[in-house]
Write a structure and sequence with these properties.
- The complex is a heterodimer.
- Chain A has five helices and ten strands, in the order αβββββααβββββαα.
- Chain A is an alpha+beta fold.
- Chain B is globular, with a radius of gyration of 21 Å.
- The two termini of chain B are about 30 Å apart.
- The chains are: A alpha+beta, B mainly alpha.
- The interface between A and B is large, with 53 and 49 residues.
- β3 of chain A pairs antiparallel with β1 of chain B, so a sheet runs across the interface.
Chain lengths: ~230, ~260
C-alpha cells in the first residue's frame, strides 16, 4: 500500500509543478481595497493618515497604491505613500509623530519605510500614488503623508442641492495587490516532496509481493544482450 | 510479513490502480489550478489600521477553501462511493468466497475494504490538496482552516461507510451505489427543502444550533450553510463522529456475527 501512496504523492507533485510553472501570471494575482476617511494627525499644514494594515507574514510580492478624493488637491504641495513595518511604527513612530515638525516627520518616515512612492495630483481633485513594489516579509502599515493646507474645506454649495453632499474631509482607498512569484524555491520544495514520494514508493514496492521494480529488473536481465558467440 | 488486512487492501488497490491514478491526477490538477487562483487572496489580510475607539466586530468563520473543496469533494466522494460499491460486486458475484474460504478472516476482509475505499481515497484527497500548497508556499497552510478539510473528510467517510454497510447487507453493487449517491448528493437537497418548508410554516428563522441535526450525516454542508449564523466546525464534527463510528462498528459487528457468503 505504501507503493500506491508514494505513487499518489509523485503524481500530485508532478502535476502541481507542471501547472504552476505554466500557469499565466494573472492567475497568481489578487487585489484588495480598504477605504476610510479623515486624518489621524492633522496640524493644518501637515496631515497623516494611518491607513491599511497588511499582515500574514509570508513572502509575496506586493503592489501598493493609494487613491484619494473629496479633498482639494490644489491645496496640497507634497504627498507620499509609505509602507512601514508594523513593529517599528508601533514601537516609536506612532507616539513621536504628533510632536514633530513636518520636515522631521518626513525624514523619519522615509528612514523607516521599506518602500515609499510619490502621490500625484489628478483632475477632479483626485490623488493617486505610484505603485510601490516590494516583498512582504513582516506585517506592514501604510501611511499617507500630505503637506499643504489640510484644513477641511466645505465644498461650494450647489443650488438647488440635487444630492446629499458628503462631509468635507479626506476620503482614501488603499489598494493592495498581491502577486505570488514562482521561483527556484518552489522547485526546490517540489524536489523535496518528490524525494519523499519516491522513497515511500521504493520502500513500498520492495516490500510488496508483485514488486514492479523487481519485475523491471528481471525484464532488463532478459533483454540484456548476451556475449557474442565466438566462432 | 505484512498483516493480511494490509495485503488484501494492497491487492484491492493494485486492481484499481489505473482508475485511482487517473482520479488522483484529476484531483491534483483541479486543486492546483483553483489554489493558485486563490493563493494571493489567502496570502495577506488587509484591514484599516485601528483608530482610537475602533471596535472589532466578530468575524465570520474563514471558509477559504470552499471553491476548491466544493468541486473536488464531489470527485472524492464519487470515488469513495464507487470503490465501496465494488465490495458489493465481489459479494454479488461470489468472488469473495475465494478469499474467505481460507486466506483471510471475514473481519480482515471488510477491514481491508474500509482501508481501500475510505482511508486511501481520503489520503489521496488530502495529498492532492496539501502538496500544491506546500509547493506554492508552506505559510499558506496557516491561512487554511483545518475545520473545512476535517469536515469534508468526515462527511465523505460517513457516506463511504454507508455504502460498505449496504454492500455487506444486500450484496448488490447497484444498490450500494444508488444508496451512496442518494445519501451524498440527493439527501442534502431533500433535507434542506424540508428545513425550508418547516421554517416557512412555523414562520421562524432556524439558528445554527436548531439545524445541528444536519451535521449528523452532512457536517460539511451544515458548516457551509450555517457558518455565517454561528455554526461551529467542532460541534459539527462532534455530532458526526459518533454516527460514523457507529456505522463502522455495526459493519464490523455484522461481518463478524452474521456475514454469509452464498
Amino acid at each position: 500500500m505504501l507503493r500506491e501512496i508514494g505513487l499518489f504523492i509523485i503524481v500530485s507533485m508532478l502535476l502541481a509543478t507542471l501547472v504552476l510553472v505554466h500557469l499565466p501570471t494573472r492567475f497568481l494575482f489578487a487585489q484588495e481595497t480598504v477605504c476610510g476617511e479623515g486624518f489621524t494627525i492633522n496640524k493644518g499644514d501637515l496631515g497623516i493618515v494611518e491607513g491599511a494594515f497588511i499582515s500574514r507574514n509570508m513572502r509575496v510580492k506586493l503592489l501598493l497604491e493609494i487613491r484619494v478624493n473629496g479633498f482639494y488637491s490644489n491645496n496640497i504641495s507634497d504627498a507620499y505613500l509609505f509602507a512601514i513595518p508594523e513593529k517599528i511604527y508601533r514601537s516609536h513612530l506612532e507616539k513621536t509623530l504628533p510632536y514633530l515638525e513636518k520636515e522631521e516627520v518626513l525624514h523619519l518616515l522615509k528612514n523607516n519605510a521599506v518602500g515609499f512612492a510619490k502621490v500625484r495630483k489628478l483632475p477632479f481633485d483626485r490623488l493617486e500614488s505610484d505603485t510601490i513594489n516590494l516583498v512582504l516579509e513582516d506585517p506592514l502599515i501604510l501611511i499617507l503623508y500630505i503637506e499643504g493646507n489640510t484644513t477641511p474645506v466645505a465644498p461650494p454649495p450647489s443650488t438647488p442641492p440635487v444630492m446629499p453632499v458628503p462631509p468635507p474631509g479626506i476620503h482614501y482607498c488603499f489598494i493592495v495587490g498581491t502577486k505570488i512569484v514562482i521561483q527556484n524555491e518552489q522547485l526546490i520544495r517540489a524536489t523535496d516532496i518528490a524525494v519523499i514520494g519516491l522513497a515511500i514508493f521504493i520502500v513500498g514496492d520492495l516490500r510488496s509481493e508483485d514488486s514492479w521494480l523487481k519485475k523491471l529488473k528481471s525484464y532488463a536481465r532478459k533483454i540484456k544482450p548476451g556475449k557474442p558467440k565466438q566462432e | 510479513m505484512q498483516p493480511r488486512i494490509l495485503l488484501h487492501s494492497s491487492y484491492i488497490l493494485s486492481r484499481l490502480s489505473k482508475e485511482l491514478t487517473a482520479a488522483m491526477a484529476g484531483l491534483a490538477i483541479i486543486q492546483v489550478i483553483f489554489l493558485s487562483m486563490m493563493a494571493p487572496r489567502m496570502a495577506i489580510r488587509v484591514t484599516l489600521y485601528p483608530q482610537p475607539g475602533y471596535v472589532a466586530y466578530p468575524q465570520p468563520p474563514q471558509t477559504m477553501l470552499t471553491p476548491v473543496l466544493g468541486i473536488t469533494s464531489f470527485l472524492y466522494a464519487i470515488l469513495t462511493i464507487a470503490i465501496g460499491a465494488q465490495m458489493g460486486l465481489e459479494l454479488e458475484r461470489g468472488d469473495s468466497a475465494l478469499y474467505l474460504s481460507h486466506p483471510i478472516s471475514r473481519l480482515s476482509y471488510v477491514a481491508s475494504w474500509i482501508i481501500a475505499s475510505i482511508l486511501i481515497p481520503s489520503l489521496m484527497f488530502f495529498f492532492s490538496l496539501i502538496i500544491p500548497i506546500l509547493i506554492l508556499e508552506p505559510y499558506l497552510l496557516l491561512g487554511v482552516g483545518g475545520g473545512e478539510i476535517t469536515l469534508i473528510l468526515l462527511q465523505v467517510s460517513t457516506s463511504g461507510s454507508i455504502v460498505l454497510l449496504t454492500a455487506a447487507l444486500f450484496k448488490k453493487r447497484s444498490l450500494a451505489l444508488a444508496v451512496g449517491i442518494f445519501e451524498y448528493l440527493i439527501a442534502p437537497i431533500l433535507l434542506t427543502l424540508i428545513a425550508a418548508i418547516t421554517s416557512s410554516i412555523t414562520q421562524t428563522t432556524p439558528s445554527a444550533r436548531d439545524m445541528l441535526w444536519m451535521a449528523v450525516l452532512h457536517p460539511y454542508n451544515y458548516y457551509l450553510m450555517f457558518g455565517y449564523s454561528g455554526a461551529n466546525w467542532v460541534e459539527a464534527a462532534v455530532v458526526n463522529i459518533p454516527v460514523f463510528s457507529a456505522f463502522v462498528a455495526f459493519l464490523l459487528a455484522y461481518t463478524r456475527r452474521s456475514f454469509e457468503v452464498k
